Amino acid sequence: MTEQSAAQIEARRTIMRTLFGTMVTQAVGVAARWELADAIGDGEAAAADLARVYDIPEERLNRLLRVLACLGLCVERTPGRYALTEAGYLLRKDNPNSLLDLTRLLTHQTMQEAWLHLETSMRTGRPAFDDVFGTPVFTYLGERPELSALFNSAMSQRTKGDGVAATLPQRYDFGRFSRVTDVGGGDGTLLTTILKHHPSLRGVVFDTPEGVAQASKTVEAAELTDRCEIAAGDFFEAVPGGSDLLLIKSVLHNWDDERSTTILRHCRAAMPDDGRLLIIEPVLPDTVDPGGAAFEDPYLSDLNMMVLIGGRERTRGDFERICAGAGLAVTDLIELPAHVDFAVVEAKPV
């Protein structure tokens, strides 16, 4: 039998890692739902003690913990004793940069079931979610308050964790504007961070009633009730006016080009002629650099948008095209730090 080369061995490992991807997702999902990282705590935890917490046999829990250790979420320093890694600490509830709810959302049975029908979306161009559950994803969420709250919390964690809220206020000149509207601003995490960095700026969080359900708590916690309003509505119908700067983060990738252009037209209608719009999303390069993006971003996100809602990630050229259809011209592309998966596309009225 011919000995395999290093390249052949690595090629096989690449395929095997991808084949086990679903299993990895489920293992991490169980750990997130059980809040296992919180149970492990700051030091070491014995599998036997953790097993009593969850009322399952030690041997069975230890098998899950070994998988998590192989994934780099914890380490087994001595047999049956585990401590969190920095990555595992991101699944702690008390971590200010926690990704626990984002993990819960993406590993939720509802999201995973839609992904089982990726081939349907590939062949039809329709969101598989609609076919599986008989309703669009945001309608489905709106009818399930607990899942909707998880979605909002997950999006907030993504905004904090992806570094946009921490880096954007220093990367863009907000001081030349007087009022900013965050279109699809959710719970207000991004806007309140910007307002705290720019005391002369006033703002509006605009989203659906479900989307802004938690915004008042965020605004109150930031002590910005005197400078930040909350408005509920539908950006497919209109966007509130009165601001010389509009933000729209992680919204357009939810929609196809036609509906994205509709949203942008309403943004344009709400802007003064000297206003600006900041689109904050991943921006795909024109060609794939295999080592240039994390495994899960942004190309899997592109498929995720297709499966769940019929949206997509875009290149700069794609943004220029949909902006042009809405009476806007792209004026700049601002790269955020390498660890941030987003860029800022600035556009102005034409």
TrEMBL record:
CDD domains: AdoMet_MTases. Pfam families: Dimerisation, Methyltransf_2. InterPro entries: COMT-like, COMT_C, COMT_dimerisation, SAM-dependent_MTases_sf, WH-like_DNA-bd_sf, WH_DNA-bd_sf. Gene3D superfamilies: 1.10.287.1350, Vaccinia Virus protein VP39, Winged helix-like DNA-binding domain superfamily/Winged helix DNA-binding domain. Residues 115-328 form the O-methyltransferase C-terminal domain. Residues 16-91 form the O-methyltransferase dimerisation domain. Signal peptide: none annotated. Coiled coil: none annotated. The keyword S-adenosyl-L-methionine applies. This is O-methyltransferase. It comes from Streptoalloteichus tenebrarius (strain ATCC 17920 / DSM 40477 / JCM 4838 / CBS 697.72 / NBRC 16177 / NCIMB 11028 / NRRL B-12390 / A12253. 1 / ISP 5477).
